[in-house]
Amino acid sequence: xxxxxxxxxxxxxxxxxxxxxxxxxxxxxxxxxxxxxxxxxxxxxxxxxxxxxxxxxxxxxxxxxxxxxxxxxxxxxxxxxxxxxxxxxxxxxxxxxxxxxxxxxxxxxxxxxxxxxxxxxxxxxxxxxxxxxxxxxxxxxxxxxxxxxxxxxxxxxxxxxxxxxxxxxxxxxxxxxxxxxxxxxxxxxxxxxxxxxxxxxxxxxxxxxxxxxxxxxxxxxxxxxxxxxxxxxxxxxxxxxxxxxxxxxxxxxxxxxxxxxxxxxxxxxxxxxxxxxxxxxxxxxxxxxxxxxxxxxxxxxxxxxxxxxxxxxxxxxxxxxxxxxxxxxxxxxxxxxxxxxxxxxxxxxxxxxxxxxxxxxxxxxxxxxxxxxxxxxxxxxxxxxxxxxxxxxxxxxxxxxxxxxxxxxxxxxxxxxxxxxxxxxxxxxxxxxxxxxxxxxxxxxxxxxxxxxxxxxxxxxxxxxxxxxxxxxxxxxxxxxxxxxxxxxxxxxxxxxxxxxxxxxxxxxxxxxxxxxxxxxxxxxxxxxxxxxxxxxxxxxxxxxxxxxxxxxxxxxxxxxxxxxxxxxxxxxxxxxxxxxxxxxxxxxxxxxxxxxxxxxxxxxxxxxxxxxxxxxxxxxxxxxxxxx
Length: 629
Fold this sequence. Notes:
- With 629 residues, the chain is of the alpha+beta class.
- The protein has three domains: 2-170 and 393-517, Rossmann fold, CATH 3.40.50.1110; 228-367, Jelly Rolls (Sandwich), CATH 2.60.120.260; 530-613, no CATH class.
- Helix content is 20%, strand content 30%.
- The strands form seven sheets. Strands 1, 3, 4, 6, 7, 8, 9, 10, 22, 23 and 24 form an eleven-stranded mixed sheet that branches. It has a six-stranded antiparallel sheet with strand order 11-21-12-17-14-15, with no helix packed on it. Strands 13, 16, 18, 19 and 20 form a five-stranded antiparallel sheet that branches.
- A hairpin with a 2-residue loop joins strand 14 (288-293) and strand 15.
- Helix 3 crosses helix 12, helix 5 (181-191) packs across helix 10 and helix 10 runs parallel beside helix 11.
């Protein structure tokens, strides 16, 4: 494990009530007595970076933990882009080659809970070529950069869950405390009827869970299986003629604008030895699949599987199903929203030890029809409830509360996609969530740094209002609070994939903030950002901070500056760079400016460190997500 240097190391556990407990670590010992409930809490005095040491806890029995390093400990949390593993990311091979056992990660096993838990399941794993594939790629990139710059052990506690909103990671008392006008507003406007459940206690919570489970049963029986279960399986057999299908190699992704099913086939000629393979691996498939070998279904993944959209498929093959000679693998993969298809690296597509990423044939199939609102005679909507990872405080209770008060330096956060529809509100929500984390960890106003939403979706030159831009703005607002910071990644996204594969730059840009703010390194920690504006004659002058060496990445004029006047009609403005200024041309009374205020703006403005400029707006016009508060 890794424990935090330079502050008391909190150690806790359980023994018999009244039992004396002694903790020793790094040459220092401290004792206490278990309380009436058997819990003890001890704080080993501050340690300097080093190790390995042995942590020894002696009470009614003795427990020893070996190979304990003292260094820097950070929590990394959020939704799927934080959870995204190195195996599915860019820079995988060079990252594996640079593996360093002084970098370690503890990944919290997923758990939903209606009450704060006291323990989690997981283990500390040192960084090694054979282990880092399963690490959070952003968390690992952050840790690696800190390790290179600080030369001390780095520990990352990874706790995240794809597709989840910030509400799920927020302590319940933030919502239930109506004594604060801000919290009361969150309670009433954000959660609606869920607030009554949170405020009323366990009895109503149990009722809510039962109601939710009943809706899940109805949904699974009447909605999704109707699409999945009715496909004809004749195409899965070896004698099916697929000569008119398209050809391709894995990974194969769907048209970004298509939600529905694709058919995939691959013929494999096996030796007698290869025909004894017991496992078919397909990597992750976004979202669901049914998979066949020689016409027999060997596995399927549906909504019952946690994180189905990025869960690696590994299906057992019944004995005798494969044979020497030609065999046929067939997959019906389907997506119900956003990007879809096979998303893992080619070497994860295997039959036994045989990589089968090449020579696939595929065909677009049925369109998925989203389920309708639940009314008489129609299908129900996908339910969310108290045992859903999207339920307020459910993941905080199960996956973060048990970590407190582990001694840490700070936290990094990559989340927001699931809250884009309520972007204006997010500034309050995220700020309150951070307040709750800091309160429960009891270590003061620790650092909290956020990865801003990347560019995503089809570029649209006519777009001047954007929920994603408004969410980025809320992230920036919170990042300017004490001990906060926001890493801009608006230049490394993917218009077709909400999960951009370049996780190294995300982690390293977050690390830049920490290196400057927490460790005093004299480096630039963010891209150019708006400072002030003036308008005179036919020009608008924008002063920028963090603008040393202000330039464009492609040598062309700065893009993505929109201006508007009293008519509130936005139009694009030509721009030029003069030192740390951006000069915009105007033809009338335009005095409002927006920069990169789109889902996927083609930005090119950077500073000498190659960091992209922070999106901004100077106007106070109503925002499109304000009505969703």
